[in-house]
Amino acid sequence: MALLSAALAGSTLLGFAVVSWFQIYNAKISRLDAQLLNQLMRTSRPPEPERLHPRPELLSFDWGNHTTIPVAALVVDSNSNTLTEFNSLPEDTQVQGLLVKRLQLTPLILPPRERRDSRPFRPDPPPFVTEKTAKAHWRIGVMKSPHSQVAIAVSLQAVNQEMASISNIFLVSIPIALLLIAVGAWLISGGALRPIAQLTGVIQQVTVKGLDQRIPIGTTDVEFVELIQVFNQMLSRLERSFTQASRFSADAAHELKTPLTILQGELERTLQQVDPGSEVQQRLSNLLDEVRRLSGIMRKLLLLSLADAGQMSLYLVGVDMSELLMEMLEDVELLAPHLTVKNHILSGLKVQGDRDLLMQVLQNLLSNAIKYNLADNGWIEISAQQQQNQLHITITNASKDIPASDRDRLFDRFYRGDPARTRQVEGIGLGLSLAREIARAHHGDLTVNSTFPGQTAFTLTLPIGTRG
């Protein structure tokens, strides 16, 4: 806004300066032409008895401030005999030639009695032209009558000096005016946009942990009060809805925890009482698996609700991630002996974190690397290294290519990439979402990498020495 205001004002001032300059210049030239016409008329009068031709000292121009204007004049009679020749700027020898040329080009003005028509006599003003020599610019006027021909040239040096002074005034005043306009527009636009900047800052803080943010109305302009009121009301509705949703998830998980625990215990006790290998035992085993699956979903939902509310508690201890990865690597070799496992794990990589939760993240990533691997020629590669103050753990596995539309939704809750929700691949679609929330609770992150075709890679980033 400040730049546009300065550009608009600059264009206006520049146009005003150009028009004003030409108006002033034309006014000065008109003033000079009026004096030049007066001198032409005086000089072209018939000579008085006591003198034979006009005297050059009669040529005087009043330009104020006692400024002396160079003048050149040429007066000839009807027979082209020179009566007077005068040049107050003798170093400019070209001006006399200009005067002769203008006398030759200007037609003779006849008095009324020598005109053949009966129209009223209205003598046209003599033509005034501007000519340039090597020394100066001249304003030349010519008047021809039957008894004398007069050509007078007046130097435009004084006019040009005054116009140069006016140009310098414009060159100094316009940039200063533009600077003042730009600064004023910057301050005014900044004050007008300050509520928008406040609104933007609050919007940037609108997360699950910042829904309690509000913009104070008393510190802003009247024009933005209604907008800020609507925005604050929207935040209130979002906060209330999110609090209800989080509370529902947490309450539901708590309420389901006890009956599921009782149900699991009863099924395990009943399973021990039935005959081994019977059909009842098989049904009870299937029911027990489903109950355990529900218990796992309940635990993950409880952790996610705590993460949404910013209340995920961490039991921080020093965790040797190199040792933890090596232990889990042995489990992978036992669970998936058909896969080729490679590792590039540096020793001594330690962080401050919750060991159980970090183990849950790694187990989820390794479990996905096994489940979504290729049936033939499958492989898993684990690398862990420290870069500056961050620990990077990347788990890469052979897999089918993931469509770009699915890559953006891998961390969505309950998203499995299987529209039919079949159980060809075990899972409920909460693992990656929970893993990323755990990583962020440790002030880190979990991302999916852009890899070569035929492979998938996830990178867990954790800060070294972070204390929650």
UniProtKB/TrEMBL annotation:
It is an enzyme of class 2 (transferase). It is found in: Membrane. Its main location: membrane. Its EC number is 2.7.13.3. The chain crosses the membrane at residues 169-188. It catalyses: ATP + protein L-histidine = ADP + protein N-phospho-L-histidine. Keywords: Kinase, Membrane, Phosphoprotein, Transferase, Transmembrane, Transmembrane helix, Two-component regulatory system. Residues 190-243 form the HAMP domain. Residues 251-466 form the Histidine kinase domain. Pfam families: HAMP, HATPase_c, HisKA. PROSITE patterns: HAMP, HIS_KIN. InterPro entries: HAMP_dom, HATPase_C_sf, HATPase_dom, His_kinase_dom, HisK_dim/P_dom, HisK_dim/P_sf, Sig_transdc_His_kin-like_C, TCS_sensor_his_kinase. CDD domains: HAMP (cd06225), HisKA (cd00082). This is histidine kinase. It comes from Calothrix parietina FACHB-288.
